[in-house]
C-alpha cells in the first residue's frame, strides 16, 4: 500500500482540473494528503465512459471526491455513478463525497445509487457557481460585454467554487459528515441583470444582460460545441425552485459564504475579463 508521510492513503479527485476539483486538490495537498487527479490525462487515466480505467485510478485510494461531467442530470449518469461507487467500495475507498446540483431531480437518482453502494457518503448540492462567469460558460460573454440567456427574471443564489471546495474537504476529512446532505448557496439572490451590474462595477465597463429565446440560446450552445441539453437544464433549475437561500456553508464551515461582488472584484483584478 502506498501511503504519505501521515500514514494516509490517497484521495482521488475526479475532475481534478475543474472548477471545484482543482480547488479541492490544492487544499488537500496543503493539508499533506496525497492526491490523485482523476481525468483522461491523469496518471493513471480516468474516464467515466471507460470502466476499465476505474480500477487503476482507485488503487491505494481511501477517499474520493466524485464529480460527473457534463452533469448528473444527463442520461446514463446515475448508472455510471452507481457502478463507480460500487467499484470504489470494493477497492477499499469507502469515503465518497458527491457533488450534486440543487433542484435537479434527475440528479437524485445518481445520489441514491451512490448511497446504495455501501459507501460512507456525503452529498454536496450546489447552486450556480460564480466561476461560470470566468472559467467556463460565460467567460467570452463577459469579455464581449453581453450575457445572453433565456432566463427572464430568474434569480439565483450564486455560490463560490472556493466555498464548495472548503465544504468538500471538510466532508472528506471528518467522518461526522458521513450520511449528510448539504445544500450550498451564496449569501443573496441575484438576477442576471444584477450580475451584469456587479460585473460592470468590477471591470469598469458596461456588461449587459440580454434576454434571448430558447431557440437562440440553443443555437449559441451548438456554435460553442456544448450539449443542447444545457438549455433544458438551465430552464429547469432557473424556474424558481432554487430562488431561496440555504445554509450549508455556515453549517459545515461556521462562516458565511462569499458574496458575488467580492468574487467579481478579485477576478477582475486578474485581467481575465480585459479586452
What can you tell me about this protein's structure?
The relative contact order is 0.13. With 275 residues, the chain is α/β, with parallel strands linked by helices. The protein has a 6-stranded parallel sheet with strand order 2-1-3-4-5-8, sandwiched between helices. Strands 6-10 form a two-stranded parallel sheet. Strands 7-9 form a two-stranded antiparallel sheet. It has helices spanning 19-30, 54-58, 77-90, 105-115, 139-144, 161-173, 192-203, 214-223, 229-237, 248-253, 260-270; strands at residues 10-14, 35-38, 61-66, 95-101, 120-126, 146-149, 155-156, 180-184, 190-191, 208-211. β3, α3 and β4 form a beta-alpha-beta unit. α3 packs parallel to α4. The radius of gyration is 19 Å and the shape is globular.
Roughly what is the average pLDDT, rounded to an integer? 92
Cα shape: globular
Unreliable segments (pLDDT under 50, ≥5 consecutive)?
1-7
Total DSSP helices? 11
Run of helices and strands = EHEHEHEHEHEEHEEHEHHHH
Specify Rg, calculated over alpha carbons: 19 Å
Largest sheet: 6 strands, parallel
Strand order of the largest sheet: 2-1-3-4-5-8
How many beta strands in the DSSP annotation?
10
Strand content: 15-25%
Structural class based on helices, strands and sheet pairing: alpha/beta
The percent range for helix content is: 25-40%
Task: Give the CA-CA distance, first to last residue.
Answer: 50 Å
Amino acid at each position: 500500500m502506498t501511503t504519505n508521510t501521515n500514514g494516509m492513503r490517497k484521495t482521488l479527485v475526479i475532475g481534478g482540473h475543474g472548477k471545484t476539483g482543482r480547488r479541492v486538490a490544492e487544499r488537500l495537498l496543503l493539508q499533506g494528503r496525497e492526491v490523485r487527479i482523476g481525468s483522461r490525462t491523469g496518471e493513471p487515466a480516468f474516464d467515466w465512459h471507460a470502466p476499465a480505467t476505474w480500477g487503476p485510478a482507485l488503487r491505494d485510494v481511501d477517499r474520493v471526491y466524485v464529480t460527473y461531467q457534463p452533469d448528473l442530470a444527463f442520461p446514463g449518469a446515475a448508472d455510471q455513478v452507481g457502478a463507480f461507487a460500487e467499484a470504489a467500495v470494493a477497492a477499499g475507498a469507502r469515503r465518497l463525497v458527491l457533488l450534486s446540483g440543487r433542484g435537479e431531480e434527475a440528479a437524485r437518482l445518481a445520489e441514491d445509487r451512490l448511497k446504495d453502494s455501501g459507501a460512507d457518503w456525503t452529498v454536496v448540492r450546489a447552486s450556480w457557481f460564480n466561476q461560470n462567469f470566468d472559467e467556463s460558460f460565460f467567460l467570452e460573454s463577459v469579455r464581449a460585454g453581453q450575457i445572453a440567456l433565456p432566463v427572464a427574471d430568474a434569480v439565483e443564489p450564486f455560490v463560490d467554487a472556493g466555498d464548495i471546495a472548503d465544504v468538500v474537504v471538510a466532508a472528506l476529512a471528518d467522518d461526522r459528515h458521513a450520511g449528510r446532505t448539504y445544500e450550498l448557496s451564496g449569501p443573496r439572490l441575484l438576477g442576471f441583470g444584477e450580475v451584469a451590474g456587479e460585473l460592470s462595477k468590477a471591470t469598469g465597463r458596461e456588461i449587459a444582460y440580454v434576454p434571448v429565446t430558447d431557440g437562440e440560446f440553443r443555437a449559441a450552445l451548438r456554435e460553442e460545441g456544448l450539449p443542447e441539453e444545457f438549455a433544458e437544464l438551465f430552464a429547469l433549475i432557473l424556474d424558481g425552485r432554487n430562488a431561496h437561500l440555504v445554509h450549508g456553508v455556515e453549517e459545515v464551515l461556521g462562516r458565511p459564504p462569499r458574496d458575488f461582488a467580492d468574487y467579481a472584484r478579485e477576478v477582475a483584478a486578474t485581467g481575465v475579463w480585459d479586452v
